[in-house]
């Protein structure tokens, strides 16, 4: 079974600064997707960024980028120029590309606090 | 395009009762997945429905069940409620094929069991 580990229960960042959230995963599958989801206090889960395992290039979405290290099974999220609206719980998630279906395996989450 | 909707948003039930939660996916989405979110266990996959058939199932007892209708709307049912069933229940919809990996989440139903 696949597992996702987020070792940082809570992180803080100063507004306009950069922060990196860590995620490691364990799988025996060769093809999969990785995601970072954001859950603000409203509880609405929002997809931040995705990475296909077969792609070597790290995904980037505006101020959000990932550092995907397939051999190390590591998938960190970097948030640049942090904004107050970035404060939320961030979840790392895994989805198989081998087994048909949309099951997501989530990490425990990291609370990100943004200081003004 | 309307997002994923879940009803009701909040629910209070008594131990031993049963409850039904509803999820309407984004128009055109045929897959609906359900997740339970609790402070202790985090986000856990319950099950997924596609074309009215359960496609995947998580490790939950048989008290948790679901179904999907021909219009892709889905319901989940929890029978004989226990205090530990208090949670935020999220549903997510997506297109059905392997290449379409993005899931869109609803706002959740907050269930409190007393």
Give a summary of the structure in a few sentences:
The complex is a heterodimer of chains A (116) and B (114). Chain A is mainly beta and 116 residues long.
Describe this structure as you would to a colleague.
The complex is a heterodimer of chains A (116) and B (114). Chain A is built from no helices and 12 strands. By secondary structure, chain A is mainly beta. In chain A, the strands form 3 sheets. In chain A, strands 2, 5, 6, 10, 11 and 12 form a 6-stranded mixed sheet that branches. In chain A, strands 3-9-8-7 form a 4-stranded antiparallel sheet, with no helix packed on it. In chain A, 34% of the residues are buried. Chain B has 114 residues and is an all-beta fold. In chain B, strand 4 (31-38) and strand 5 (42-50) form a beta hairpin. The radius of gyration of chain B is 13 Å and the shape is globular. Classes of the chains: A mainly beta (116), B mainly beta (114). The A-B interface holds A 33, 37, 42-47, 50, 52, 91, 95, 97, 99-109 and B 31, 33, 35, 42-45, 48, 50, 55-56, 58, 88, 90, 92, 94, 98, 101-105, 107-108.
Low-confidence residue ranges of chain A: none
Distance between the termini of chain B: 37 Å
Major sheet summary line of chain B: 7 strands, mixed
DSSP summary: helix tally of chain B: 0
The total beta strand count of chain B reads 11
How many strands appear in the DSSP assignment of chain A? 12
The multimeric state of the shown protein is: heterodimer
Characterize the overall form of chain A. Answer: globular
- Greatest interface and its participating residue counts: A-B, 24 and 24 residues
**Would you tell me the overall average pLDDT of chain B?**
93
Radius of gyration of chain B: 13 Å
Mean pLDDT of chain A: 95
- The amount of helix of chain A comes to under 10%
**Secondary-structure element pattern of chain B, one letter each:** EEEEEEEEEEE
N-to-C span of chain A: 41 Å
Residue fraction in strands of chain A:
over 45%
Structural class of chain B: mainly beta
